[in-house]
């Protein structure tokens, strides 16, 4: 058996006040004298009283909870995003419920349905695929408040995201301006239809009159350091005369840097390396890595504010809105030599 549930009546019996007075006091109502409020709060604490949030939500139609779905908790940038979202939601009086899809489509659908069953007030979702969003569209059409942290601008779902296409374009253009013509691309997101970084890379090549070459592309299954290391080995084994590489995450860029060091390549003299997300490890690597910045504070602030706006919209949801934030390129030694 679980511990007995302490009711407002139990606090009333202990203090000698009415249930209504106890209820007002625990809600810090100014109608109740301060000393009475303190006496009732002390009694509630002594009895280990916990408010019945389920009963409150039935009355208010709000649970004051938000579901956060990420693809991975081991990705350093998503860990920072989760922390920033939790803090910002707490400032606004919301509790964050957290789940990961681990990059699996069925698991993503499962955790979204779990949050729906828990009647969260809204959801923030970093989807595994930025294109395969039918299941999320159906959730929005059913009246649920949803904001994506990445997604297709034509998804008919609210999106607040970094403009990774533009970030990749800036990174590739930077390498071209440094004189590189054979630029590798390590990007596992293509397997899920997340093509934005590839598209930005190709745009920069096309503008410079450089033909795309498939032997310069590697598509690892994960975004880890080891995946970057293996992808770098794969690219270099092809004998493609590559002099620079753009990795879709800093973790993979760190793996590429490790391979270069192990195999006697000077970075950036023999091989320039650029990553994505601007995580702390990139800045403090043995050779500090140039990286496309992920503006965590800006993304999370705008995403949370948009979700609260949707929650407060009442029964009629406004049209979906897409906000793309242009990233900065943080140039370091791995590509500049300075």
Automatic annotation (TrEMBL):
SMART domains for this protein: HTH_LACI (SM00354)
UniProt keyword Oxidoreductase, yes or no: no
Keywords: DNA-binding, Transcription, Transcription regulation
Gene3D superfamilies tied to this protein: 3.40.50.2300, lambda repressor-like DNA-binding domains (1.10.260.40)
Database matches in InterPro entries: HTH_LacI, LacI/GalR-like_sensor, Lambda_DNA-bd_dom_sf, Peripla_BP_I
Superkingdom per UniProt: Bacteria
GO terms for MF: DNA binding
Full protein name: LacI family DNA-binding transcriptional regulator
Native source organism of the sequence: Devosia oryziradicis
